[in-house]
Fold:
Amino acid sequence: MGLKFAILPDWHMQRVAKMAEFTRHVTKPNDRVAQIGDNDSGRFFKFGGEACLDHSGLLGAIAGVFGDLSFATTTETRIIRELVAGTQVSGYGENTAEGRFIEPPLEKQDWWETTETIITPPDKLVLENLDAVAYPDFGLYIWRSDRFFLSVRCGPVGQNGNGGHAHNDQLAIELNIDGEDWIVDPGSYLYTPSTDKRDAYRSVHAHAAPKLGNKEPSRLDLGLFRLQDNARARCLSFTEDTFEGVHEGYGEPLYRRVEITDGQIRIIDGVTSHQATPQPVTVASAAELKELWSLDVAFSPGYGTVED
Structure:
């Protein structure tokens, strides 16, 4: 393996490499990572200004160990290279997340569309040559390139079902085009200083997720650090241009399908209980999309901070 670590076996270094791959995959064209659930950044001692969503330093440090500059090249890269005396770990393993498709079930459930949103990017070429990335155990499905990022949240709430740092974000999307956030997860903002703010940022109404009136898919009144997995979200299929998932947080199956086709992004929600004839709504800008989905919670890039 090259460099020998007295207390760090090969499997540990493989996990470090996979950590870097995940971080790279959730980094958007604006060099910020997508937020899923809580983000308090884990910093107890803060020595200077923070850019909590910029993880290039982490990627750069790992690049210094593995010698793979596709991660990043930063000051941390040079520091780590010096610390390891020029010896580098090679062969960090396969990237198993890319091209990890999920085949649709053999017996497909029929459901009826209730809403359809069509997103038309200013430049249709931005939808070409996308990498499809799946993390089903975590619950995140991504299409990405240097210019484009679209993710769908669909999976476990963590902590063996306790969901202490989870939000009501099942089937929510995040979209960034050419560095502009069209739809963004708002983050966490606060924990115990304000229970109202805590719940506002955990609420489904703070996320670009399917909604049913004022209902929440999972209860918010069980404690600030508990969110039961009532939704039981699961991915039904994921390909190079399509996602379909379902959750049951509203007492009946609620479906969302995302399609990237013909220079557009189509987001279709539906149910099995009744048939409807939705009128598709087309948007061509970030402002139009945010207004359509009534997402007005202030964006929090790190614990205790918000941006205008």
Summary: DSSP finds five helices and eleven strands in the chain. The chain has two domains: 10-83, 112-292. The two ends are 48 Å apart (CA to CA).
